[in-house]
Write a structure and sequence with these properties.
By secondary structure, the chain is α+β, with helices and mostly antiparallel strands. Helix content is 18%, strand content 35%.
């Protein structure tokens, strides 16, 4: 299982990378494996400001639909449009082409609720 050391993680199995006051978010390799084949990603919150912990979209797999939760408060600045036609990118490359959203952070210093790779491995029992 791939858990890159340079990313931050949530208890809801999302990863976060930072570039200044912008965060890129996707689901972890563990999450995509648990979900199975992803057939649809729905994110209709682009342009909206959402609080940490609130739902920003859903991901639909063959057997289930799961909510996606904001890891940090901010504006959903961009949705990965490639996922509309190719949701399988989440399974194939969850940390690359399968990213979901970019967030314009409300407070770039508020990262307290995120885990590093070591803590995330403990969280999932890896």
């Amino acid at each position: 299982m791939n858990i890159p050391e340079n990313l931050s993680y949530t208890e809801d199995h999302e990863w976060v990378s930072f570039d200044g006051d912008t965060a890129t978010v996707g689901v972890t390799d563990f999450a995509q494996g648990e979900l199975g084949d992803i057939v649809y990603v729905e994110i209709e919150t682009e342009g909206e400001t959402i609080e940490s912990g609130e739902v920003f979209g859903t991901v639909e797999a063959v057997k289930t639909v799961s909510d996606l939760f904001m890891p940090l408060s901010g504006e959903v600045a961009e949705f990965n449009q490639a996922l509309e036609d190719s949701p399988e990118k989440v399974n194939e490359d969850p940390y690359g082409d399968g990213w979901m959203i970019k967030i314009k952070l409300a407070d770039a210093s508020n990262r307290d609720g995120l885990m590093d790779a070591t803590a995330y491995k403990v969280h999932i029992g890896a």
